[in-house]
Design brief:
Elements: E1 5-6, H1 31-36, E2 56-59, H2 61-66, E3 68-70, E4 72-74, E5 80-82, E6 88-92, E7 96-122, E8 132-134, E9 140-170, E10 205-206, E11 212-217, H3 229-242, E12 252-254, E13 260-262, E14 279-284, H4 297-314, E15 321-323, H5 335-338, H6 341-354
Parallel strand pairs: 1-10, 11-14, 11-15, 12-14
Antiparallel strand pairs: 2-9, 3-6, 4-5, 5-9, 6-9, 7-8, 7-9, 12-13
Helix pairs in contact: 4-6
């Protein structure tokens, strides 16, 4: 299918400035796509807790039921809906504590109709900034670290429902600009989206310029639970249904046997490690925390080949190789991969020098 793109949207959020409310507009959930990814459908691995949950808040029936609401109620399915006869309604959440302090935040939700999401943050849960408009899968960059968050949901007729809401938390890092150049490095063989029978994204992607690489591990499923395309579809379902993301979050995934799968196109913003924009997400199947899965020679070779090509293709600096833990308090991608990052930088540099892409002695 053709890739649908939306223009890059940059919204640096300064708490001292009052921003006008912004509606996301109609955002219909692709129910056909989600149904096709249902756990009961043959060939889709039922997964939970992919890549752990230490950087997320997932909010649905229980959270919506306990929050203050005006003109809103819950459907039998647990969706947030307008009460009969109401043309608009509002929900205000209690104060929520994030898993760790953060200065980057990515909201996402599944729903349809006119949905407006507002967020405010606080370092101590007492002194608050102003309410800021949120857009689905658009990272909010904050001027300083916060630990607490509160959200408001505003729904307007017609036919509005909100199935769930999530927030992924992250920490900003200074980024070195990429420097594109010609090169002879071949792109590694991979299985494209059609090959693993991907569901279509629920909405348009946002373009970005790749400038860094973030490596993840699946954590769950373990390497022994890997089922090739069924596992990729299971991760896509988990990301779209549980995390409320528009698509699988990673740009690439690598199986224990060294097979590379294309997730999102690498030229669009992913959903894997907030702040996400300009970061390519690569996820290796397995749990590489101490004493768990071995980092196989095949997956290591595939990861090096992929990182070499991406570095050459987009002019990424090897100083911009990261693990997910560099943006959060998580252990991802596990010590078994993370402690290899310096050797990856050295090996990619050597390969690019041998190919004449970089000068010797760099």
């Amino acid at each position: 299918m053709p890739i649908r793109l939306r223009p890059v949207f940059t919204l640096p959020l300064i708490a001292a400035i009052c921003l006008s409310a912004c509606q996301s507009g109609p955002m219909p959930t692709n129910r056909a796509g989600l149904t096709a990814l249902g756990a009961a459908v043959a060939g889709v691995q039922a997964l939970k807790h992919v890549d752990g949950e230490g950087d997320m808040l997932r909010l649905g029936r229980e959270a919506f039921g306990a929050a203050q609401k005006q003109g809103l109620g819950l459907s039998s399915q647990g969706d947030l809906v307008l009460n009969a006869g109401q043309s608009s309604g509002q929900l205000t959440s209690p104060i929520l504590k994030a898993p760790y302090d953060f200065d980057a935040l990515m909201p996402a939700w599944n729903g349809s109709g006119q949905i407006e999401v507002l967020v405010r943050v606080s370092a101590d849960g007492k002194a608050w900034g102003g309410w800021l408009p949120a857009l689905p899968e658009r990272t909010m960059l904050l001027p300083k670290r916060a630990q607490f968050i509160q959200y408001q949901l505003r729904l307007s007729a017609p036919a509005t429902r909100l199935e769930g809401l999530s927030f992924q938390f992250g920490r900003k890092r200074p980024q070195v600009a990429a420097q594109r150049r010609s090169h002879p490095i071949p792109k590694p063989a991979l299985i494209d989206r059609a090959g693993w029978k991907a569901a279509p994204p629920k909405s348009d992607y946002t373009t970005h310029t790749p400038a860094a690489i973030v490596v993840h591990h699946t954590w769950l499923p373990r390497a022994s639970q890997y089922q090739q395309g069924a596992s990729i579809r299971g991760i896509q379902r988990y990301h779209m249904v549980d995390n409320k993301w528009m698509d699988i979050g990673y740009h690439f995934l690598i199986g224990p046997e060294g097979v590379i799968y294309q997730g999102r196109p690498e030229t669009v913003v992913g959903a894997h490690s907030t702040p996400n924009t300009n970061y390519i997400g690569i996820c290796v199947f397995g749990d590489f925390d101490p004493g768990q899965d071995p980092f196989t020679d095949a997956s290591r070779a595939a990861l090096l080949d992929l990182m070499t090509w991406l570095t050459a293709e987009y002019g990424i600096q090897t100083s911009e190789f990261y693990g997910h833990r560099d943006f959060s308090n998580k252990s991802c991608p596990g010590d078994g991969i993370y402690h290899h990052l310096q050797s990856f930088k050295d090996e990619v540099t050597r390969r690019l020098q041998d190919a004449g892409v970089l000068p010797k002695g760099r």
